[in-house]
Amino acid sequence: xxxxxxxxxxxxxxxxxPATPREMASRAQFADSTLPPMKAFATSQVxxxxxxxxxxxxxxxxxxxxxxxxxxxxxxxxxEGPITVRVTGTAPGxxxxxxxxxxxxxxxxxxxxxxxxxxxxxGITIEAVSRKEIRQMLPQAACFVAPNVGSLQxxxxxxxxxxxxWTILQRRDRIAIFVxxxxxxxxxxxxxxxxxxxxxxxxxxxxxxxxxxxxxxNVHTVLTGFDMLILxxxxxxxLRSGMTRGQVAAALPLILARIHPAGERRQARLATRTPRxxxxxxxxxxxxxxxxxxxxxxxNRAIRVAASMGWTDHRRAFSxxxxxxxxxxxxxxxxxxxxxxxxxxxxxxxxxxxHRAYVGxxxxxxxxxxxxxxxxxxxxAPHIRTARVNENAALLATLLLLRAEALEQTGRIAEAxxxxxxxxxxxxxxxxxxxxxxxxxxxxxxxxxxxx
Length: 452
Hints:
Distance between the termini: 50 Å
Largest sheet: 6 strands, mixed
CATH topology of the largest domain: Collagenase (Catalytic Domain)
Number of helices: 17
Oligomer: single chain
Order of helices and strands: EHHEHEEHEHEHHHHHHHHHHHH
Low-confidence stretches: 6-10, 14-31
């Protein structure tokens, strides 16, 4: 089992939830909506990773031979031969087009022989079920993937048995992915990207990766250039199921030199591993089960670990961002100070641009609450393109809504109206149901003190 958690690691502002079962994001509802049409991203703008091949080899090994739980995988496993994918259950209208785009990218960018099918013997079955059914299996999961099953009913019967244990798998022949059919279009798409990537590729996540979906911070939710390169290496002819860690490590230098020649000329950074103490502190700080004081203590503990490790990367910044998130409702001034610190660390690393955009929404919201429209516009400006490039409609809609409020504060009423209208189409993809979109509109508008 591999899980995409629904911990609110990157929730925007006060975290308006996406669609709920009472208002499924179906094709009919989108058509009947009184809001402007939903928008979607048509093309992907992928940036190749700027990594040395030594770094990539280490990342590949740690992603491929360990589960998130820390359990080691004794051998390398993948699909051998063409991969077929089918969809079952009650799929929302946006799932099909998003899945086709993803499969096209996997074929083009990663060179993987993968295609859709309607046959029952497909290698991968994507079953669309309700979030309630997913949570009955795994209370903290947004979606998940499991080996050697083809339906949720089958998984329910085989759960916790050797049949579904990744550590004894020798080759991947049959995998099931369970995604919600009553979530926002973006959440469904995010599940498709992360879970399909891990159904065919690495099963681990590494917090040290700033530009990957193979990271529990949930910042990147669409497969990146780094991810596609890792998957291309995963299906290189020089590798095969059953190889040991040592055998894969020995083969990687030639593989990476062939598929990523630019990495041969780059100097290795050899980023430090992430201590479990830091990971656990972050999970507690941004989880839902601990008390406020426990979450504050956990976030402070993450900051101390990051400092003691000498980090100045996105993990150091994320520690401060996490504490800001915890303090937001009770001590906005203290939260703002931690967001500024996070922004300072993120700003030193170009590959953390998406992380910085999330902090930008917090800082811009603070400026809007002070009726400082000019400052809010300055803060928002660099992040609009980042949200578009990373195909994050929820983030883009939030930035545009904040921009509309800031424009009103500077007297540019007509421009504000146009920007707000543009934001709604993205909000419908990012947040889903009409009630969720309207709640987001109301939430952002309530930040503006000029509206009473």
